[in-house]
Design brief:
This protein is an alpha+beta fold. Helix content is 31%, strand content 36%. Strands 1-2-3-4-8-7-6-5 form an eight-stranded antiparallel β-sheet, covered by helices on one side.
Amino acid sequence: MLLRTVILLIIIAASTLLQAQHDSFIGKTKEEVQEKVKTAYREFGQDNTVVSQQFNYLKYVNASQTITWIIYFTDEDVCRSTKKVCDYMEYDDVLKALDAQYERTGDMQWEYSSEGETFAVLLKEEDWYFTVREQRKQ
């Protein structure tokens, strides 16, 4: 029974991660982002433990605490970029999701177009974690 529960949680997390990589928040208002996370990404809970007055952002953490999702906003509360800080146990699933959803343009770099704009997705490996950043292509 425990094994089935663990497998089910892994399947749910993997499918949500794929969806999370596909939906872009860039250009959306803070309210739109909050509503979308609340309805479509229920395994992510808002984290208010550290609040920086220097940046305008929302921070979410998944149920297993292996992905922290930071969504950055302009002074007008419009999303300008996102960053996921991930534990390496998520690495293979994240890499598969990126390759499935986006066009690879280089080493650990992907692109996609939406509503006439091109977006860049970059994966950067660190010592204890890796990050996935999404922003408008410059």
